[in-house]
Design goal:
alpha+beta, Beta-Lactamase, Arc Repressor Mutant, subunit A, about 55% helix, globular
Length: about 240
């Protein structure tokens, strides 16, 4: 797939514009996952960050199917993102069928969902690795140029998270990331509530939360807590914009 240079440039500007003092980490990482699927020849993307104990947690995914695949990868302690995070290096799997002996459960689940290749890129600054960006393909994996672009997007996201720390000098990176990880738990709980109350699937429930948080200029975690606590007016929770 030819790279759209103008759109790529706009994406870097968009990500940079998100790096304000009070930026929403969850929304920022979902933006990263969405733009990867739009710019690169990949079918899906996921973002994982490490908690204070060094365990990876799923923070964002381009679809609910990918989020569940990432969770499966973590629960079985096997897959490219784990190797990428532990080694701090890019892990490329051009053919999932060729790694069934290495990662039997993960490879089978990924292929069952229609993925043939996967690439995991470290979210790293110097010697500090805070997570991984995972890109799934329904055909051949990324070429060298696209891999460099993907790594640049992961680097921008990493810098954004570290800049978030710079505005709170007393905190460490892991402490701030732990706050974001805790927010992810609230969002998952709120997705379940919205899905049940509005009779939609989990992916649509997340889009409803995201769109309403944007419209109300609120953080996703703030809206999620209101939904869980029962203080949010459900008559207002409707899709307000197309997916982007």
């Amino acid at each position: 797939m030819p790279m759209d240079a103008e759109r790529l440039s706009a994406t870097f500007v968009e990500l940079a514009d998100s790096l304000v003092t009070d930026f929403d980490v969850i929304e920022f990482l979902h933006l990263l996952a969405r733009r990867c699927t739009q710019l690169l020849d990949v079918a899906a993307a996921g973002v994982l960050l490490a908690d204070t104990a060094g365990h990876l947690r799923v923070m964002a995914a381009s679809s609910e199917q990918v989020r569940l695949l990432e969770l499966f990868q973590l629960q079985n302690d096997q897959g490219p993102c784990l190797d990428c995070y532990r080694r701090g290096e890019v892990v490329t799997v051009a053919e999932l069928a060729a790694v069934e002996d290495r990662w039997p459960e993960f490879a089978a689940q990924a292929r069952e969902r229609g993925f043939d290749a996967v690439q995991a890129l470290p979210m790293r600054l110097r010697n500090e690795v805070i997570g991984a960006l995972n890109l799934f393909s329904a055909g051949r994996g990324l070429d060298d140029e696209s891999t460099r672009i993907a790594q640049a997007l992961a680097d921008v996201a990493t810098i954004g998270l570290l800049q978030h720390r710079a505005h709170r000098h007393s905190d460490t990176v892991v402490e701030q990331l732990q706050t974001a990880l805790n927010s992810r738990v609230f969002i998952e709980q709120a997705k379940g509530v919205v899905a049940e109350r509005l009779t939609v699937d989990m992916e649509e429930a997340f889009m409803i939360l995201r769109d309403n948080a944007r419209a109300g200029r609120r953080h996703l975690s703030e809206l999620a807590q209101a939904v869980i606590q029962g203080t949010e007016d459900f008559s207002r929770l409707r899709r307000k914009e197309p997916r982007s």
